[in-house]
Design a protein that fits this description.
Mean pLDDT: 82
Low-confidence stretches: 179-186
Shape: globular
Number of helices: 5
CATH class: Alpha Beta
Structural class: alpha/beta
Strand content: 15-25%
Number of domains: 1
Helix content: 10-25%
Oligomer: single chain
CATH superfamily: L-asparaginase, N-terminal domain
Largest sheet: 7 strands, mixed
Order of helices and strands: EEEHHEHEHEHEEEEE
Length: about 210
Amino acid sequence: MRQKVAIIVTGGTILSTYDPQTKQIRPVKTGEQLISELPALKEQYDIELIAFSNMPSPHLNPQIGLELAGKIEDTLRRADISGVVVLQGTDTLEEMSYLCYLLVNAEKPVVFTGSMKSTHELYADSLGNLYDAVCVATSEEARNRGVMVYFNQNILSPRYVMKTQTRTTWLLLEPLRQAPLERLQMSRFTFSIHPQRRRSTIDPRA
């Protein structure tokens, strides 16, 4: 039986492309359109898309973060869901992933990801980040490790993630600890450290 992954869509560059009329990067794609560009994902996993929002990540605020944490917990309680991937913009990815790290209590993996480059750019990283984030979210090795961030072939703890620049696909630094993703045939990886799941006593839905 194939594993089922919920992909919660909040917006960001991963759903954006260049608008030649306005000469701006605009969030015009839907989750369905993004998934359709990655046939291998639907061939290997059952994907459930949850359209939480579609906005630039600077528009995400603490109240939205609480709602997102509640949605993640509600989704993980379902027996048919193996893990959750959250797609969002990078400007507030460190804050939103850390908030969910503090609030979400679940054994199942939760992986935040996004992209630095929009899909029209030559070095677009959206599909690779999405595919590998789903691989992490369905892995037994990723259970009981709390909320994680996946970017540019690295699994990171939200406790140490920081956006440091905007020019390349590598924007996330974890200065003290890092659990790199070793990609072998696009499906195998190893943890060099063992991030532990945080057990919160706060209900994000309260």
